[in-house]
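Protein 1 of 2
SEQ + STRUCT:
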Amino acid sequence: MEIPPVPLFETVTDLTDGAEILRRRAYGVIEVADGRFRRLVLRPFPKIISAPEILLFGGWYHRHRSGDRLLLYYNQPRRFRNFLALRYVVSARHTRMGTLTRALAVLDEIARLKRSDALLCDVGNWRISTKLMSRWGWQQHCRSRWHRHYIKRFYGEYPRLPERAADQLPEAKQDCQQGHAEEHYQGHKPADGEGCPGPIPD
């Protein structure tokens, strides 16, 4: 009996119907436009962040891509399968805060489907405040001079998306500051009384 090969890339447009695929695949990019979940593309490799990509591609994309659209990249690290690392968010020029909030809610749902213990990130955009992160359920951890590490803990208790995934989430009314929601994230594993560990490997 011949086993069909697993495709390198897979696309999910319904989080309920695609739940098994999402549980199986480790790397993905969430696309949200006009405040609504559009699709999630599963990738065969993790998202690796570099300074040239942030400065060149991220800035170019934001300046030249119009509309209310956002891409959110996440990894499920091989050595720490019970965590998800939010690695990178890039936005179009007119992206609203509601669209960013919608993408984060979709990430919460993926964490629920995978039974992840927590989400991890390193916020690189100083316009995203600690107060705003707290409103989204994130807490600071592993304080550092050069990094802003955050964690969103679940440990079995997850926020639930309404039926039909993100389409029925309430719209946020405020816009991103200057229409800009582009961020840089690098996940870290939380430690209990052991200080700050290094970055989670991909």
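Protein 2 of 2
SEQ + STRUCT:
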Amino acid sequence: MKKFATGCVMLAALTAAAHAQTAAQPETTAGGLPVEYLNTPPPPQTGQAPTMRVTELNPDKRSFQVVFSKGDEAIQGLKEFADKNNLTLAHLTAFGALQSASISWFEADKRIYKTIRLKEMMEVTSFIGSIVKNATTGVRTVHVHGSVAVYRNGTVYAGHITDAVIGPTMQVYVDDSAPLTTTAQAPVTAPATAPAR
């Protein structure tokens, strides 16, 4: 009986060790790599964006550098700049530093923006967006997404930038083009199936 009990204990220990070894093995891909690694990007496939729209832009685009100084409000300043220069379809990028900003996320179920208001020095780590003129009303909208890192501890906040007061300075680069043509991808449909005979 004692030998039987000892054997059971040894069998349980071996089983536990085998399970532990299996659990320790990282999950791998078909190529033997850990799942968080990618050897080569997957091959491109067509038909994966059936509702994509393509707009050909005017090759004679206008380019601007807009430099803000301490205390300027960037979003309102860009709106004023766009109106004065009759921008129609522009994209922008920027870098610099802010002393205050509002970072927002749109909550679709509530139809409102949740906002964090920062009032401290921060570095602009991303600032990209568009300035678009509404063809019906003529009103221009400045729409910016971005991220900032606060000087105090490097914490990063990202989302819609709805207001931004400049710290020392910020440089914005704007390219404006008038749209020439807009095309939509033809819907991808399944081939017709021949009727059964």
